[in-house]
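In response to the reviewer comment on reproducibility (Comment 2.3), we provide here a single inverse folding case reported in full, input and output, so that an independent group could reproduce the run without further information from us. The structure tokens appear first.
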């Protein structure tokens, strides 16, 4: 229960600082824009309501894969390091809270901030889609929204985990956004470079399983796989691009299967958070 107390305080602080209102505004503008784009795609390809929902999800997936991590990391990276710098962490731990209660409370409170902003923002997007199109698959859209909330939770765990390992917000910010650079820019470059070293070419006729697996490991790729699993539509996965072009041998490694996206998301959430808890329990404040 101690972690719940910390979470409630964290959430109330976010509301008082208007962080929550700002995030709701960002996600609302983001999803309304996606709804408008989906409506234009629907008109262009003359698709029906169900296809329009998929058009919207496709229009939102890639930018959400960038926006949600950035926002979740901004919310999470200063959770512990910021309070250590200000000295308020010693006061907080002077209350009947264990260190793990503080860390878990921060995760819960900041996940609530991200989740509420996503739910309200995506709700506004749904209203926009209905206004632009007139019909929408509620189940598919809500399912996508919930997977996005899970994705936000993963990055909050990463941000708070990093924050628990460092003494300053500067180092925490560098670590958090270094991960964004790694996942968004360097990972695919490293995979392509390794492909050239192993295969002797950048674009073989058939891409090996290990290459598909490596490109499916990042949290962002796992997010797409999880969406594909719940919507039964493989076009959201990283591997689908290679499958559609006939660049695979017809089978996928387990890591690239849609259902495995949830396993990867769990690993990305629990490992950084677990290591952050372990480190935070052993350092002097």
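Designed residues, in position order:
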């Amino acid at each position: 229960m101690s972690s719940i107390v910390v979470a409630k305080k964290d959430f109330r602080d976010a509301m008082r600082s208007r962080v929550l209102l700002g995030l709701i505004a960002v996600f609302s503008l983001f999803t309304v824009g996606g709804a408008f784009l989906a409506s234009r795609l629907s008109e262009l390809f003359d698709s029906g309501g169900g296809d329009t929902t998929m058009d919207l999800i496709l229009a939102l997936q890639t930018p959400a894969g960038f926006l949600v991590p950035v926002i979740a990391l901004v919310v999470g990276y200063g959770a512990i390091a910021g309070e250590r710098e200000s000295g308020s962490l010693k006061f907080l731990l002077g209350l009947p809270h264990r260190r793990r209660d503080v860390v878990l409370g921060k995760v819960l409170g900041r996940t609530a901030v991200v989740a509420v902003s996503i739910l309200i923002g995506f709700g506004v997007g749904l209203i926009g889609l209905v206004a632009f199109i007139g019909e929408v698959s509620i189940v598919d859209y809500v399912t996508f929204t919930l997977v996005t909330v899970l994705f936000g939770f993963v990055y909050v765990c990463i941000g708070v985990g990093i924050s628990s390992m460092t003494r300053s917000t500067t180092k925490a910010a560098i670590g958090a956004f270094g991960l964004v650079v790694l996942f968004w820019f360097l990972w695919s470059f490293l995979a392509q470079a390794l492909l050239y070293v192993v295969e002797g070419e950048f674009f073989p006729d058939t891409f090996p399983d290990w290459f598909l697996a490596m490109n499916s490991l990042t949290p962002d790729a796992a997010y797409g796989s999880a969406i594909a699993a719940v919507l039964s539509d493989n076009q959201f996965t990283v591997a689908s691009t290679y499958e559609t072009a006939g660049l695979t041998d017809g089978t996928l490694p387990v890591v690239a299967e849609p259902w495995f996206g949830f396993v990867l998301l769990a690993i990305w959430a629990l490992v950084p958070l677990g290591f952050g808890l372990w480190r935070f329990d052993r350092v002097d404040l």
